[in-house]
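fyi for ur records
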Amino acid sequence: MDTNSIIEEIKKYIEKNILAEAVSIDADTELKKAGIDSFSTVEIILFIERKFGVAIPDEQLLPENFKTLRSLALTVTRLMNHTA
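which gave:
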């Protein structure tokens, strides 16, 4: 699965389940500025782990990995490639 596909899957989840209806995001939107808080981040982590079959280790739980959809997707891609 490529990075853009991962971005789209995470984006769909966040827009449907977390953000207010009028709020939309793109690959480079800062998630914190869009209203994503620490509780929402936990939901996103659980979604990623279920959807993509990867566990995000504690050392990867860094603010820069959760800044945008693109940084999240790159983290997922790295983890998927590492476990493949």
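The domain at 3-18+30-83 is CATH 1.10.1200.10 (Non-ribosomal Peptide Synthetase Peptidyl Carrier Protein; Chain A). thats all i got for now
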